[in-house]
Amino acid sequence: MRGSRLSCVLCTLLSLFMVMPASVASAATEGSGGSGEVTIHYYDSAGWAKPFAYMYGDGVRSASWPGERMTDDGDGWYSVTVDAPHGLRVLFSDNGKSQHPGANQPGYEVNGEAWFVGSTRHDSMPEGMKVHFYDYANWGKVRLYYYSEAARGPTWPGEAMHADGDGWYTATIFGTQPARVLFNDGGSRQTPASGQEGHLVTAEAWCRNGVWTDTRPDGVLVMFHKPSGWGSPRIYYYTSDADTGPAWPGNAMKHMADGWYSYTITKYAKARVLFNDGGHQVPAKSAPGYEASGGMPLGRRRLVLRRSGHRRRR
What is the Cα 221 distance to its own chain's centre? Predict the structure, then answer.
């Protein structure tokens, strides 16, 4: 009887040991066997706007192509954070359309936090030279072509510039400094003009209407107190009949508090401004706009306003 009980205990223990390796192996696969999380950064020089990252490695694979949409970190940089298995590789795409590496090629190898500019991997954020361009002629999209005496730049029309949201566009040049730069809309419009040499840039620089500065040029902060009976105010601004801001009736202003509204003009350092709500308007129709520069409040107190020169008809 004792021998029978001993045999049963031994059989139970043997069964447990036979099952355990399979359970442990399963847990290791699900846990990826990695070394914690890793962040992958990607610079969108192609102007994809919605880069995706597809990742795979030992025990880990993105659920389906094109993978995970990357987070916009600003200035053209995108990132994604994932568990880091051994042998992690990544492919980038514009939601499955264009991709690199190309189709049927292995992904870029990742051994820790990495920054990718094109096919080049960096172990820390690479230094570059930022170039800023104001879309003065309302192209809607801007590309940057650059070159130097030592090397040609990207294929024409160049790399995508990234909209800052206020008329300004930004791109970073990596590995070519100083550089000569030209801007274009991806079509027939460009500056400097065709056949002309690019502008020499040696450090971060801003270009607005052909004028280059080493700091961001001034804009105009306009504050307006909404009169009684008005709806939401809009602002229209211009410098001349040939050089205007938005189409009439202009852009919506941002509500601050106590009836005050604000708007920052980034196209000009000084301008003439008119306010309206789609029905009311100040100054009145056919009167020139108020002169505005720097930061100035309009509407609550009496201001001495010059009305000489250009007259705007609305």
Answer: 24
Task: Compute the distance between CA of residue 304 and CA of residue 309 in angstroms, rounded to an integer.
Answer: 16
First to last CA, the chain: 110
pLDDT of residue 309 exceeding 90:
no
The pLDDT of residue 93 is: 97
Q: What is the pLDDT of residue 83?
A: 81
Give dist(CA 266, CA 217) in Å, integer: 8
Distance of CA 296 to the CA centre of its chain: 30
What are the pLDDT digits (tens) for 33-60? 445 889 999 999 999 979 999 999 887 7
Cα–Cα distance, 37 to 84 (Å, whole number)? 5
Q: What confidence tens digit (pLDDT) does each residue in 250-283 have?
A: 999 999 999 999 999 999 999 999 999 999 999 9
Contacts of 48 (CB under 8 A, 6+ apart): 93, 94, 95, 98
- Where does 241-307 show beta strands of DSSP type E? 243-244, 251-252, 254-255, 260-265, 270-276, 281-282, 290-293, 295-298
- Separation in Å, CA 128 to CA 78, 121, 173: 16, 14, 5
Q: CA-to-CA distance for 242 and 169, rounded, in angstroms? A: 23
Q: 16: helix, coil or strand?
A: helix
> What's the pLDDT score for residue 1?
46
Contacts of 217 (CB under 8 A, 6+ apart): 206, 208, 211, 269
**Judging by beta carbons within 10 Å of its beta carbon (0-12, 13-18, 19+), is residue 177 exposed, middle or buried?**
middle
Distance CA 160, CA 142 (A): 6
